[in-house]
Amino acid sequence: MTQKHFVIIGNGAAGNRAADVLREGDSHAKITIISDEFFHFYYRHRLKDFIVGNIDETSLTVRSSEYYHDKHIRLRLGQQVIKIDLNSQLLYLKHMELVRYTHLLLCTGGKPRMPEIHYRYREHFTSMITLDDAKHMKQQLPAVKRMIVVGGDLISVQITKRLLNAGIEVVFLVDRDAFWPLTFSDVIEKDFNRALRRAGAKIISDDAIVNIEKLGHMAYQVRTRSGENLECNLVGGFFGLVPQVDFLVGSGLDIDRGILVDEHLKTHFDNVYAAGDCAQVYNPQLSNYWVSIGWGNAVKLGEIAAHNMLGSPDTAIRPPINVLDYEGIEVKTEWWQEVS
Amino acid sequence: MTNQRSDDNNNPLLNSGIEYFSDEVKRSGIMNYRSTALPTWCPGCGYYGITHGLANALKNLHVNNNNLVIVSGIGCAGRYPFFVKGYGLHGIHGRALPIASGIKMVRPEFTVLAIGGDGDGLGIGGGHLPHAIRRNIDITYILFDNAIYGLTKGQASPTTPFGQYTKTTPYGNPEKPLNPILIGLAYGASFVAQGFAGFPQDLTIVFQEAIQHKGFSFVVVTTPCVTFDHANITYQRFRNIWKKIPEDHDKQNLANAMALAQDGNYYNGILFQDHRNAWHDVQQSIRKNTSITK
Amino acid sequence: MIQAADDIVIKICGSAGDGSISAVEILNRAAALMGYHIMNFDAYPAEIRGFGKSVGHTRISRSVLLTTGKYTDCLVALDDVHAITELSTMSKRGVLIYDSKPPQYHQEDQAVAGFIEPGMIGYGIPLRELSTIAVRSSRSRNIVALGVLAALLHLQAEYFETAIRKRFSAKPETVIDNNINAFRLGFDYTLQNVNKYDELDFQHHVYSSNRDSIIMSGNEAAARACLDADLRLYAGYPITPATRIMEILAKELPLKGGFVVQTEDEISAAGHVVGAGFAGARSLTATSGPGICLMSEMINLAVMAEIPSVFIDSQRGGPSTGLPTKTEQSDFNIAAFGGSGDSPRPVLAPTSVPECYLLTRIAFDLAECYQTPVIILMDFFLSNRFEDIDLNQLNSNVFGRFTPQTAPLKDQPYLRFEVTDTGISPRAIPGMENMFHTVTGLEHDERGFPNYGKANHLKMTAKRHKKMETLVRDWQETGTFGPEGQLDVGFISWGSSVGAVMEAISLLNDQNIHSGGFFPRLLSPLQTSHLEVFSRRCKRIIVVEMNYTGQYANYLQVAISKRMERFTRVDAEPISSEDIVNWIIKDES
Q1: H and E: helices and strands count for chain B
Q2: Residue C174: strand, helix, or coil
């Protein structure tokens, strides 16, 4: 019998929790975590404090390499899976290596959402999802006097507050389409604007970007529908997250908003599971799928997936609808509406 | 006794030997090639005859004493340099050839003689002979073959006959002896000759030829050890079995020389000689950065 | 240890034939042209070449280098499977450059990029593909990799082009063009496509170089010293790691009127050297442990018969055939004491490549002045490591002047072994008019005649030792290093370990652990008074050497009463400053 090889794609909360549970349940199996990021498992919600220098990089790290050595978990960081052959149970890595798995767990998380309307000038947006993004932004910040933030997701608000504290002039362009995963209501807009204005941001609403032009190094001009030309050093685009499933297209897995899995987090392939932000989980009661994002959710799903992979059935329960656990912060969602 | 050594610093043997020579010997001029030290060999040792033959050859060739270097190994023959007027290096057991070769390489104008016994040259130092031959360095190697270890008082050597009784072969020598002449020929020496300590005049001629030969000269001198060998190489036995080399022998014919070396007879004289380039000749072309193969 | 951004250890790793070594050669040359210091020590496989891995290992810095560095900052993988085995040496800031487009997918765990440790940074570059564009084969991917390195580490490209031109100067113009093209492709690709994450950075600096420097290995330095010292005969037998000396001399020495002979064994080599020395010509052999064993009897003869001769022992792991391609310093005992009887002879130990030159040169003077064999203890690490050398360095002499005494021509009897105050007898050599004498390995009187008298033996033994006392008196280099005054830690070390100890001393002083060193180049006879002065200054004395028992420490310990600690290693690698510092800090805290 060949040795079991649990391969987890994704080094976030779901993947790491799953690895722990798998190791507890099977001390002999080979366990591998693959992530295209170069960094150790880190607290994503602390990135905003990292970019403005409130905390240093070491405080971001959840676990260092010793932990994985001790647990005999092979970490493959900075490695990207570009193709999955589900029939042969083979992963094709970008650096031209084949990895054979017996059980696969997909915890690839999310990537920045880019509304179609902004596609034309998308390379001019700075976003901040990963530590890599954060480091890049942190490097640029000292030279930033003025930044235009476009968006409306929760992180955009959090970042704006910190940028203002750091003495950067922020112009916040509220983009109703950018709100995700919840849509904007007039009530929220009011609260939202008040909060931003109190913090010192200049707010432009009821307008929209029609073009962004790069004038030079760290110099952009943003033109709005109303004809305003705004100059700035950076344009932040914060439009929320979408599951990172590009590399799975054509693999044979069912993909919708995320990877479709049953209540045991299993795809329609026997040994392939998904958990965390990238999973779209079936709820038999609702006869429908749900997507949930956030740290706590990811940990829970990672654990459930691992149990199932070890052969002890476990079922995912939908979290309470009125609380959104977003990047480690619980936000009451009374005044938010779920996306349909 | 071969080498009874005195602990006395004023050992008379080392100083005033010259007094012992007859007027005739003194007049002959060979004393120019003898040091004042008197040999320490046993009375009747074959080495006296060899010494006489060699001194004569050096005299006849008018060798410059200042450029004469004798290198020896260890054994009764090893003492030889002390008895020659010239420069000497009494080295370590079996290594006369490398040392002599080193001297000749840097001082090609020197007349370099390497001296050693059968144990020294075919036993412990046997590995150097083929390579000195290969290099064809222009030195003369005189192998004093008495088929016994004399200095250590009578043990079997590489040329001791099969079955002979010695102190280390009390049941008879279980090993077959080497044939030094055949070895020299087989290794490809450019000059191979042999002689007998009992015929010093013949040795003089052989030595002269050997010293004059441009290249490595290998001379095997069979010599009686009167103290430890009463059965094998004795003057009585050997004086009569030596033969002259056949008149029609072609010195350049290796096959014929090898045939003579193996026919059971002892031939007095030069069995083989050819005139290929010596080591320094080849080196000369290397320095000129030309091909050393013609 | 925090290393500067412009002090970088680079390894290029491939299969034999991938050109790792020649790429490092070009890299060294380019760096030296830009005025950087380099130290290069390639790793050779113990296996037969052609199957094994071959690793070019160099360290480039703006500061003078004392070691090749324990950890790799930048690893270039020309062969994935071999490179994986080098990853354990990666530093905390390590950068890996690998081929992002091999001809087919690697099997699991056979891709070096799959082992990138957290904290390390990997750059995938299509090395083969770029090489194929340049030369229609993957052959030049080593040169492509140089382009990548230059772009990534911020080194100026034109110096590489000069170095490439020089490296391939014997080749047709198209070969040179192809290689420069390959370099350019790697360089441009990196500039255009690689997002630099790492901190390794030479900042495009070129240090205006008035330095007349060349790159040399220890073996090359020793060979060059032989040529400059007017060597007449080199006799040797091939043995790792000394063979290169013979190979160089075989080519160069005949053109300078000397001779090289490859002998049938080391005994014969030593015999040739002693013979030539007796005849008044400078002669030398270079060997390693097994060879020095065979030469011991001949060295003894040279001691007894007082014949000038020089022996290089490039040490390797022992005993017996041992570890032919690994470094060790375990031949001190045989060098200083090998052979029978009381057999004193000078033993020298260079600590760097320039000293391989300087001490080899001075060894000939010592041999002639004190009429003795001289042994130079190099080792695999010194023999095979390359350093950039300031040519002016080679003209210095801090050791002393050693002039041989020639006997005046006079009436007989000439006393070859005349007893004098210094122990040195005026020397005559063969060829001189009427200075006839015979030297011998037997105990002898002043004329050279064998003599076994007990009074004579005592007198002549004392004479031979007296020469060594004279040498110690004449030797000017004190061997002391570092700050003056009282020391918390005083290091004693020798040979190739000294560089690491010097580095450790400066690191410890940075941490306020007051440290200094005593690094004798004349290992034996012992400079007792210098040792005593040094030991009185030290709270702790630690002897650092690459052998198991502490051979040199054992030798020193009898001379002074203060207890010496030993830092010894036989792990087949050069000692590193990190190892020493960690050991001290663990003790001191």
Answers
A1: 10, 8
A2: helix
Residues C459/C443, Cβ–Cβ less than 8 Å: no
Predicted pLDDT at A185: 62
Q: Per the CB < 8 Å rule, is C101 touching A94?
A: no
Half-sphere exposure of A193 (CA within 13 A, CB side): 16
Asked if A78 and C105 come within 8 Å (Cβ–Cβ), the reply is: no
- pLDDT at residue B100, rounded to an integer: 98
Give the DSSP H or E segment for B155. Answer: none
A–B touching, 3+ CB–CB pairs within 8 Å = no
How far is residue B32's CA from residue B24's CA, in Å, rounded to a whole number?
A: 14
Cβ-Cβ contacts under 8 Å, B141 against chain C: none
DSSP reduced 3-state for B176: coil
3-state secondary structure (DSSP) of residue B245:
coil
DSSP state of A166: T
Local confidence band at A176 (pLDDT 50, 70, 90 cut-offs): low
- Chain C hits for B283, Cβ within 8 Å: 254, 259
pLDDT at residue A41 in the model: 93
Overall average pLDDT of the B126-140 stretch: 98
Chain B partners within 8 Å of C257 (Cβ): 287
Residues of B in contact with C275 (CB under 8 A): 71, 89, 98-105
Residue of A nearest to C117 (CA): A77
Tokens of C105: 């997918």
Gap between the Cα atoms of A266 and A272, Å rounded: 6
Tell me which of B105, B112, B138, B292 to substitute to probe the interface with C (most C C-beta atoms closer than 10 Å).
B105
Q: How far apart are CA A249 and CA A251, in angstroms?
A: 6
Cβ within 8 Å, pair C122-A78:
yes
- Asked if B142 and C280 count as a contact pair (C-beta separation under 8 A), the reply is no
Q: Copy the structure tokens of residue A10.
A: 């994704």
Give mean pLDDT in consecutive 10-residue pieces for chain C, a chain of 589 residues. 84 92 95 94 65 89 94 96 93 92 94 86 94 94 98 97 94 95 98 93 85 89 98 97 97 95 98 98 98 98 98 97 94 97 98 97 98 98 95 91 87 88 96 95 96 97 98 96 95 98 96 96 96 96 97 96 95 93 85
The burial class, CB within 10 Å (0-12 / 13-18 / 19+), for C2 is exposed
Pure H helices in A104-166: 131-140, 154-165
Category of C248 on φ-ψ map: left (φ > 0), alpha (ψ -120 to 50) or beta = alpha
pTM: 0.86
